[in-house]
Amino acid sequence: MSANTIAISEVPVHPLSLRLHEWVTTVDHKRLGVLYIVYALVFLALGGIEATIMRVQLIRPHNAFISPQVFNRMFTMHGTTMIFFVAMPMVFGFANYLVPLMIGARDMAFPRLNAFSFWMTALGGLLLYFSFFGGDGLYGAGSAPDVGWFAYAPLTAKTFSVGHSTDFWTLSLLSSGIGSIGTAINIIATILCMRCPGMTLGKMPLLVWLNLVMAGLVILAVSPLSAAQLMLVADRYLGGHFFDTQAGGSAVIWMHFFWIFGHPEVYVLVLPAFAFASEIIPVFSRKAIFGYPAMVLATIAIGFIGMSVWAHHMFTVGMSAGANAFFVLSTMAIAVPTGIKIFNWLATMWGGKIRFATPMLFCVAFLFQFLIAGLTGVTLAVAPLDWQLSNSYYVVAHFHYVIVGGILFCIFAAFYYWFPKFSGEMYNEALGKLHFWLFVIGFHLTFDFMHVPGILGMPRRIYTYEPGRGWDMWNLIVTIGVVFQAAGILVFAANLVWSYFCGKRAGNDPWDAWTLEWSTNSPPPEYNYAKVPIVRSRRPLWDLKHPEDPDWRYE
Amino acid sequence: MSPTNIFAPVSTPAESIFGLSVFVFSTMAGIFVVVFALLAYAVVKFRSQGSHGTEPAQIYGSTQVELAWTVIPVLIVVALFLAAARVIGSVQNQPRPQNAIEVVVTGHQYWWEYRYPRFNIVTANELHVPVSNPAHPTPTFLTLLSADTDHSFWVPRLGGKTDLIPNHPNQMWIDPHETGVFLGQCAQYCGTQHAKMLLRVYVQPREEFDRWVREQQQLAQTPESAGKRVFESTACVNCHSISGTPAKGRFGPDLTHLMSRDTIAAGAASNTPDTLSLWIRNPDAIKPGSKMPAMGLSDQDASTVAAYLETLR
Which of A164, A242, A321, A449 could form a disulfide with B92 if both were Cys (CB 3.0 to 4.6 A apart)? Predict the structure, then answer.
């Protein structure tokens, strides 16, 4: 390993302007990965502020903190921001940074496409937020989009959405969609073509497998979304009649287009979260992942089944009994491979020696929370129950359980786990644990209790509600939880900044881990590996550390 | 006790959903307890004792165990699917009996229009239906239309929700077994005032319902008045209908029997002289963003119009 090592002091330090120029023009997968992640963190703050504004408004019935017009913009911007400009860039950022390192490559297959994709995504986010200033257009109506993040037709038609707020929304998703597809192609090409000698498909780390399936889903899911955005532009400006019901178009076609994107999108986000858990849980349990082939097969199964469940978002739109039954079955079927994954992580911990450093804490909380998210997901898959619960706060609680309790917890785990690799510095463990506990408390206060008003008949997307429905106390508790979550995020941000400037040196392999990225410097040099590594098993560093008992004897 | 609790059903569709939900939730609770216990046991039992020593035994997998936790979930999924399919069929494929009440519900930004084609009645926001005796059911079948954007009809104690989508007529039915007022609201985001597009369903004994029908079938009794003249000479008539008068607008709610309703503005305010007068003067004070414009009437004209509307019984 020492052949790979270069002393940090040899890296030249340039003036600030030159360094900024390097960041803007970079095609290095690690720098682009960091750009994606930092960009996602900025939007996480914006989306979080929007959520907080909504929760203040809903703290009691008939509250007048903001107007209905502002509230409707807040939930539209919150949803769009969190999905397209937080979760997606975060996922792509980690994939960009980690995939080439983990397969022993020196960069992505198409570095310039990589930069192009990032900047298209960045443009999308800027367009979306420029709507606050530019959305008025000529008509003096509205600023930011207020059509909801799934923007059902015909609310997006010119008749109902005057001005340009919807256009900013459309162009923003079109632009970031091009970036997403570019990055997905890049990830697939990199994984299929750039693996180091010895790394057959069956010896790839699970993170790489999961990102391969994720990238495939991005191509299949984002393409129809982009097509639908172009059709919407045609409707609004070119006399198209795809979704314009007043001209004979179909509102239901938009729903199909949106959800054939929207549901695979959930797996686009959750598979990378699974990927983080699949790397972190083994290392902190000190055991190899249990059932690697089953994990790979379950991932592929989720990818395939995930493409055939979209209309479970549409159980209330009046599909036939047969169609409803089909989507009940396909949706429930996905619980099987997902269950396999949870059981395999459990079996990985079983008989291990579990160290509860911050990354593992977040992963363990993820396991408990994702269990609940999956089970409420099955209740919503039961179409008749969905007729009651669809578009209620129960659904809002369910998908935040998936996205926050599942995906965001794994992203935090990934931050703490790879921060030493990305920055070369160790994060502060006490602050990390404080962040964890604040966030766990805040998450459960907010999203556990949010299920209840849904069961009591509270629909989502209402800027205020009537007293006497039995919703008041639950909404108060939900809002209180936000305080803890916000405090947790502040601790997290402080930890990152403080550790970056004042942290202890982490060394190359602080976790005694097993995948290739831990064999190079922290942070890795531009070319990743001075000598391209050669691997013989799924855990090359285990083999190095245990020459008497290497993995390749058993695989 | 919440008046919109899905677990307090009083109508067959809501009851069959409730029965199914008991089965589904208890199955989920069972799975939760088992997996939670296993996870908690692993977390407590296998925590590292003291500092880093030797590595634990490396176990790469087990085909038998993998098969077990694949087959058991498959069986659970099959059971849940069959239970769900049964309820889907029983609710969606329910034949419409001859004596069913028919109502055409049209969603508007941000209010509900009800037409009873057999009775030749038009009303708004407050749906009246007869109670249905389980021995001799008189269900109400709703045809769901939309005049503008998507809406969704949801009265949790009576049944699940069904969307109202332009160019896409939908159907649903209810057969309430209890009399009373059942609350709900629009459940599909439809624009600025989605939050105050409230639903009230009045379930009445049959005789009372029949009396209500006869009253609604009457033309408005409208002797000449100052308020009537103001109403009919301003833009009010462009949007509102009052049967037997020149007011024939269809954009807003029919006002022929306005005073037979407990609420105005789709349930956003109770129907009192004060709120009615405020609604005419400044609708945004009650429901900002509603499609009802402030008419710019003088205070005196607004009062006379309110007085006229209060005669519409």
Answer: A321
Its CATH architecture, for the domain A26-553, is Up-down Bundle (1.20)
Interface of A with B in 166-195 (CB under 8 A): none
User: Residue A143 has what pLDDT?
Assistant: 85
Residues of chain A below pLDDT 50: 1-7
> What is this model's ipTM?
0.96
Q: Which of A252, A349, A464 sits opposite B195 (nearest CB)?
A: A464
Residues 243-282 of A with CB under 8 A from B: 245-246, 248-252
* CB-defined contacts A:B, below 8 A: 281
Edge-to-edge strand order for the sheet containing B121-124? Answer: B121-124, B111-116, B101-108, B140-146, B170-174
pLDDT at A163: 87
Residue-wise pLDDT tens digits, A100-125: 999 999 999 999 999 999 999 999 99
Beta strands in A223-267 (DSSP E): none
pLDDT of residue A554: 85
User: Residue A88's pLDDT is what?
Assistant: 97
Express each pLDDT in B13-61 by its tens digit.
999 999 999 999 999 999 999 999 999 999 999 998 876 678 999 999 9
pLDDT, position A253: 97
What pTM value is reported for the model? 0.95
The CATH number linked to B149 is 2.60.40.420
Asked if residue B136 and residue B201 are part of one domain, the reply reads: yes
Q: Are residues B256 and B208 in the same domain?
A: no
d(CA B268, CA B196): 6
**DSSP state for residue A96 in the 8-state scheme:** H
Q: How far apart are CA A131 and CA A169, in angstroms?
A: 8
For residue A29, what are its two tokens? 């997968």
What is the pLDDT at residue B51? 63
> For chain B, what is the largest distance between any 2 Cα atoms, rounded to a whole number of angstroms?
99
Distances, alpha carbon B60 to alpha carbons A202, A214, A345, B24, B55, in Å: 14, 25, 12, 34, 14
Q: Which two tokens stand for residue B90?
A: 């029983």
CA distance A88 to A181: 11
Q: How near does any CA of chain B get to the CA of A197, in Å?
A: 23
Residues A234, A170: contact at Cβ < 8 Å?
no
Contact B61/A292 with Cβ under 8 angstroms?
yes
* Total count of domains within chain B: 2
Crossing angle (nearest 10°) for helices A321-333 and B63-92: 160
Side chain identity at A55, as an amino acid letter? R
- Torsion angle of alpha carbons A167, A173, A179, A181, nearest 10°? -120
Let me know whether B291 and B244 are in one domain: yes
Distance of CA A328 to the CA centre of its chain: 25
Element (H, E) at A132: helix A111-134
Nearest CA to CA, how far is A361 from chain B (Å)?
10
| pLDDT (0 to 100) of residue A11 | 57
- Domain boundaries along the sequence of chain A: 26-553
Q: Which residues of chain B have pLDDT under 70?
A: 51-52
B86 and B209 assigned to the same domain? yes
Question: How much is the pLDDT for A3?
Answer: 45
Q: Looking at the complex, does the CB of residue A389 fall below 8 Å from at least one CB of chain B?
A: yes
Give me the sign of the Cα torsion angle A19, A21, A26, A31.
positive
Alpha carbons A142 and A160: distance in angstroms, whole number: 11
Cβ distance B39 to A368 less than 8 Å, yes or no, reads yes
